[in-house]
Amino acid sequence: MLEGLVSPENLSLSSMDMNVLERLKWLQQQQQQVVSRTSDNSPELLQILQFHGSNNDELLQSTFSHFQMLGSGFGPNPNMGFGPSHEAMDGCISRTSSFQMDPVDTMGVMLKNSEENRTISSKNKRKSEVKRREEEKTEKTIKVEAETESNMKGKSSMSNTEASSDTSKETSKGASEIHKLDYIHVRSRRGQATDRHSLAERARREKISKKMKYLQDIVPGCKKVTGQAGMLDEIINYVQSLQTQIEFLSMKLAFLNPELELSVEDLYVKQLQDYFTNLPVVIASKPSIMVDVPLFPLDQQGSLDLSVINLSQTTSTEAPSASWETQSRSLYNTSSLGFHY
Amino acid sequence: MERQIINKKKRVFSVEPNKIPPSEVFTRKYTSLLVPALKKLNMNKNSSQVNQLTVKHEVDMALALSAQEFAWSRFLLQKLSSSNNPTTTTSSSSNGIRIQERSGKEGGHEDGEREEKLRELQKLLPGGEEMNVEEMLGEIGNYIKCLELQTIALKSIVQDTT
Questions:
Q1: Does residue A223 lie within any of the structural domains?
Q2: What is the residue range of A236's domain?
Q3: Of A239, A323, A341, the CB nearest to B155
């Protein structure tokens, strides 16, 4: 009954020109076909197929109980049904085709297929780094399968189905930790919805939480507060306080402006001093150069000599203001986080 | 406009750009922009006429020009150049608006509260209202860093004159 999966349609779609979207649609079509064809024949099979998209625990247990009966009949077919799409994709697919069709393995195949579906839909959003992701993914999927298989093999009797479902769920949850490559990969845990909208939602939420974590590092005093609302509060207060501080300083500057006698060169000297004292290792490196303001004697390449550096430290007459140095030093230390692009 | 041209002439050429922390580059740019501008202000107008708004304008302009790789700086520049009377972003914060305690909404609508706060944050960032949430959160990080560096630069300038 399931041989109908191997239709001419499958073979025609094996061309590499098919892009990912079409592949996904095809895949979903196939799934739906399987579901529709088998709905009247075997409700248990339907449940198994819908299993990977469902959140239902009871379903899980019932499918486990029916599993071994239907495994052998169901076995060869998902392989062939998803075959052509697998050829078009890389690495991990080949593993599916090489699996022995034991009832035990079918579960692994199911898991793999469900994982692939999720990754397919996540691939739709990003077109880059496909191969690298898949290679790393294959390790993870193999791990998942190995663990679930070993779990299933360990529990032979039906009476252990509940326990096995729990442990396998836990192991799969532990194994399928969300592995983030740059900002791309979203891996959903077992029992979570796999449709594209919720995946997109989840990816978006993870991006946002990652950015919130970065902000937490920047804003002082943010780590003590838990929850996003509190953190946002802190951030807002911090930004406002910074802005009022700036305004106050500019007011002060406006007040003092007539007496503005400072020379730009002195400021630069101070800044250079800070730069060199902060990074003593980098003392031979060449700092940035202000073109319009000739500060130090430059040699032909426009670089600073070490001798000049010593000169600058001895010739600065005014004592560097402590607050500037300590503050800028602390900032330089924290700015190793860099500007987050 | 003349001021802007003068400001733009100051360029920073990093010989080895990778080794210089961006904070260093920013503070340099900032001071190099601001101090000559202030001097020019001094020279142009009579000393009695240097009011706070123009200084504020210069301060914001220096900030925007020294952080041109960020999106919010472009918005800030737009705002500054378009408006004659400098209605800058910080003027809204001069009221000292603090987050009001929402007594009634503690238990329920937590998402709504979060949305409110995000919107509040968007108002603080120049151009924040035109970005989406993700982008805004990223830009806020940069903005905070630049504000911190700006305060340090301003403090040093003020301290030098006293």
A1: yes
A2: 197-275
A3: A323
